[in-house]
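ARCHIVE CARD
Drawer: 12
Card no.: 0347
Subject: one protein chain, sequence and derived structure
Cross-reference: see card 0346
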Amino acid sequence: MDKTGKSLTGLALQKFKKNFWGVLSLGFIALLLFVAIFAYVLAPDKTQNANWGDLAIHSKPPGFTVTMLHFPAEGKESSGISKYFVGDANPQQKVPVLKYRFAKDSLTYFEYTDEPSLAVSKTIPLSVFKTTDKTTIEKDYISQQKFILGTDSQGRDLLSRLIIGSRVSIAIGFVAVFISLVVGIFFGAIAGYYGGKVDAFVMWLVNIIWSIPTLLLVIAITLALGKGFWQVFVAVGLTMWVEVARVVRGQVMSIKQMQFVTAARALGYNNRRIIFNHILPNSMAPVIVISAANFASAILVESGLSFLGLGAQPPVPSWGGMIKDHYNYIILGKPYLALAPGIAMLLLVLAFMMVGNALRDALDVKSE
């Protein structure tokens, strides 16, 4: 095959397209990004953080269906655009019921319970629905709701929590990897290129940070920055740059001895141009693989922080937090409550690892 006239980027893209698992994994990641962005459009539960739940229907199996009685929403409804991205702040109140019956001007319903003989009945006037037409009430305020993946320990829709929780897990991976790349590439590049005292100082700093257990370091940074959504992202990112710095340092030390770098110096190029335009582009293949591994580590670290109450704070859902809330159900006969977010996390991490390996092969100029 004639490859003349093609740029290195074009050749790398061509090689990447031939990697079936890499392309499939990239498509899966793109699909999850779409799901995360439009989570509230796709999730059955449109409330903020998919936080509606009823303890009467907690821990129900996948496919569970119940009759739901809705009440008119109180207060101003969320605008159309904001509802699609942050959820509905003032949703309709609803209650699961076993059965209901109409009287002349009232509605009597029996609240859902696993033991029908213990069901509590309540009677409300039809005026609550702003209409007395029974057909209209049945059409607009009574429906059958199906929970495709069942409900969690708080009676919340597991599928909705899973979809909206993808935002935290994907975001923490991207933000943490971005921070680790920016800091790690900077320190690794200057250490490898300048050497001497600069290299000694950077490696001293790297060794100190590396000697501290990752989880303890994240906890310390989180406590210093305070609990919060973005604080966790920054804390995780600041603990992962040392690995990137070591890899970049080694690559720069090797590449700076090559002839094209010597030629660049002879042409009078400044150090910044040599580092960013000539050395770093030729050292990115191992960095990409490290970034994929760091993405997996970021998700796992966030899961560990959730166990300690320092991760994404309730009611914000995250896959790590969902596993933490339901890991004990594995031995209680309902393992799907923890397995569902666990499998989602596994597939996302695996997809990034496959993409990283495919990009490594595609960017390897030594391979045919």
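Annotation on reverse: Residues 56-147 form one domain. The chain has two domains: 56-147, 158-363.
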